Amino acid sequence: MDRNNMQQALRRVMRNRGSAGVDSLSVGELPGWLMQHWPSVRQALLEGRYLPQAVRRVDIPKPNGGVRTLGVPTVVDRLIQQAIHQVLQPIFEPTFSAHSYGFRPGRSALDAVRQAREHIQSGRRWVVDLDLEKFFDRVNHDVLMARLAREVHDERLLKLIRRFLEAGMMADGVVQARTEGTPQGGPLSPLLSNILLTDLDRELERRHLACCRYADDCNIYVGSERAGQRVMWQVRVYLEKVLHLRVNATKSAVARPWKRKFLGYSVTIQKAEVRLRVAPESLCRLIARVRMMLRKRSGHALYGTIQQLNPVLRGWANYFRLESSRRRLEEVDGWIRRKLRCVLWRQWKTRAARCRRLLALGLSPERAWKSSRNGQGPWWNAGAKHLGEALPKRYFTRLGLVSLHDMVRRLQRVS
Fold first, then answer.
1. What is the pTM of this model?
2. Where would I find the H helices in 207-301?
3. φ, ψ for residue 132 (rounded to 5)?
4. In this predicted model, what pLDDT tens digit does every residue of 236-263 receive, in sequence order?
5. According to the model, what pLDDT value does residue 175 have?
6. pLDDT tens column, 193-216
7. What is the rounded CA–CA span in Å between residue 143 and residue 141?
8. Residue 351, SS3?
9. I need a labelling partner for 214 at 20 to 30 A (CA). Which of 201, 286, 320, 343 fits?
10. Cβ(142)–Cβ(242) under 8 Å?
């Protein structure tokens, strides 16, 4: 309840924004609400009487099917969770494993990917790819609280965290009680997941296994398939008996690293050197997202469409800047330009309009006339030589279109 800690938590919640919880109080309304109600909330917290409200259920579709369930706390509960997080993180951070990369200051998913590459480069050419079945929905409260109590001795705080874990989940106006899980959506959940899974990290270290973990994504690298099968069985037993967690048998496997993906990346080996590649599924998701965006903006001006598209491309290039294949990035850039040419061809609609546009873009009158009347569809024309010359790469560069290839290469030079 320290004033500076609460002010820092408030700034963080305001900066993160997010949607309202079950009480419909928005982030923008929070400062005004606190001016009136904070003294009573603070007193309830200090006396151990505070009861968190139910979280609002939000189901997010997963790219490979199914849904990911988020539990959105009220903004007041988010504020309190953030204040707790800021106090607990410095306490637990020194206890975490060097092989854990998720939700930790100064560490990122790319650090985990680089570490995985080093393990493979060292000769461990088999991976035990573990997927924990509905991890955030299956966390055992008793097991988690026992691990919290190792470092936290304030009974009021432990009781408050337990109440956050047990707060009901509201869906369609009905509140459902919860006896397990720490739903994603609150500031505390990532830290609690690391606290629980640190025991797994230590067990793997005790067995001298090379591993990388990012939240509930865990890869263990071994020298043979037989060793991998043995490790898979041992880890599964440990998770079920000690942490009361299950391994998803359909998504977990012992395989070659280049046949699996880790945090969106895969690997390839060229001349004994392990190189990182964007996993095919990650590339497909980008293409699907670009296709959807262009479909929604089919009637808009191209400049505005590019301005909407660029943040997506920049974010993707920033995350996948470890991609080693120049050719793949150039192919994606070319596909995006072809899709944009396709959008323009559709917007020009009539043969006369297409002829006028092609003339304005520098084609000869005879070629513009023939091209506008070739009878082929938009996608064919978008890849044809006449439209490639009328709308070359420099045309889209002038409009500000981000090149994935150029941006990734620039980021690689900087890093």
1. 0.88
2. 225-238, 280-296
3. -80, 130
4. 999 999 999 999 988 999 999 999 999 9
5. 79
6. 999 999 999 999 999 999 999 999
7. 6
8. helix
9. 286
10. no
Q: 3-state DSSP: the chain helix, strand, coil percent, rounded to 5? A: 55, 15, 30
| Amino acid, res. 291 | R
**CA–CA dist 88, 68 (Å, integer):** 27
CA distance linking residue 341 with residue 393, whole number of Å: 11
Q: Give the C-alpha separation, 183 to 95, whole Å.
A: 23
For residue 307, what are the contacts with CB-CB under 8 A and spacing of at least 6? 400
Amino acid symbol at 103: F
3-state secondary structure of 151: coil
How many CA atoms lie less than 13 Å away from 158 in the CB half-sphere? 14
Residue pair 218/101 in contact (Cβ under 8 Å)? The answer is no
- Given a contact cutoff of 8 angstroms between Cβ atoms, the answer to whether 168 and 74 are in contact is no
Helices 188-206 + 155-166 axis angle, to 10: 100
Distance of CA 155 to the CA centre of its chain: 35
- Per residue in 304-328, pLDDT tens? 999 999 999 999 999 999 999 889 9
Nearest to 82, CA basis, from 91, 73, 94: 73
> Does residue 169 surpass a pLDDT of 70?
yes
**CA atoms of 151 and 167, how far apart (whole Å):** 23
Say if CB 188 and CB 166 are below 8 A apart: no
From the number of C-beta atoms within 10 Å of its C-beta (0-12, 13-18, 19+), residue 33 rates as: middle
Whether 311 and 290 have beta carbons less than 8 Å apart is answered as no
Q: Provide the total of helices (H) and of strands (E) in the chain, helices listed first.
A: 18, 10
CB 243 within 8 Å of CB 180: no
Q: How far is CA 140 from CA 134, 137, 145, 244, 245, in A?
A: 12, 9, 9, 7, 8
Q: Please, what sign has the CA dihedral across residues 148, 247, 282, 289?
A: negative
pLDDT at 234: 96
Distance of CA 131 to the CA centre of its chain: 16
62 pLDDT higher than 90: no
Count CB neighbours of 47 within 10 A: 9
Beta bridge mates, 184: 70, 186
Closest CA to 221 of 151, 81, 121: 121
Is the torsion defined by CA of 147, 11, 77, 135 positive or negative?
negative
